[in-house]
Write a structure and sequence with these properties.
Blueprint lengths: L2 H9 L16 H14 L6 H13 L3 H9 L1 H10 L8
Amino acid sequence: MSLTFEFFFLLIKVKLLDWPSHSPDVNPMENIWALLKRNIAKKDAQNIDDLVEAIHFECTNFSSSVISNIFLSIYKRINLLIKSNGNTLAY
């Protein structure tokens, strides 16, 4: 994170977690990509057109409630990471 953002968060009194910025356990997009990958793999695309169609279908039909649940689970995952001293979580 840039010093500008660190200073901004300090000014508005936001406590930042001392955590790696690329930790997949606290990155909800990693979970979303994993779900998309699993769903697309189930389509058994035989060629590039099938693959493109499967990707388009999965991206446009991805459940908003699944996305919401993934983002809402961040708090639970952060607490689990704190309890595990930063070790990778087992899902």
